[in-house]
Amino acid sequence: xxxxxxxxxxxxxxxxxxxxxxxxxxxxxxxxxxxxxxxxxxxxxxxxxxxxxxxxxxxxxxxxxxxxxxxxxxxxxxxxxxxxxxxxxxxxxxxxxxxxxxxxxxxxxxxxxxxxxxxxxxxx
Length: 124
What we know:
The chain has helices at about 5-10, 35-45, 50-65, 100-115, and strands at about 10-20, 25-30, 70-75, 75-80, 85-90, 100.
């Protein structure tokens, strides 16, 4: 992911170590972005294989004109992907739906996937 996209969305990638006492320490990767809804969406998409298998192909289908729109989501946030924007819908929450240009969203997803594949790996 280029620095311009990171700056535009205030993106940070963090490795956080959580101490579970007698159960040991576990590593967790975190993506923070300047929108809480979008950050929360990525908490559930923390498996690089699932990104490659489910989310990235949906984005590519729309960007390549194979489909006009695709829907996907996480446990609490649904997304609608079209050629211009990805719209985020939070279950049971009003009408404020964040949007990100689809090309930016793809770059963020790929950057997140690449970060997930770097050591230390998620242990959750």
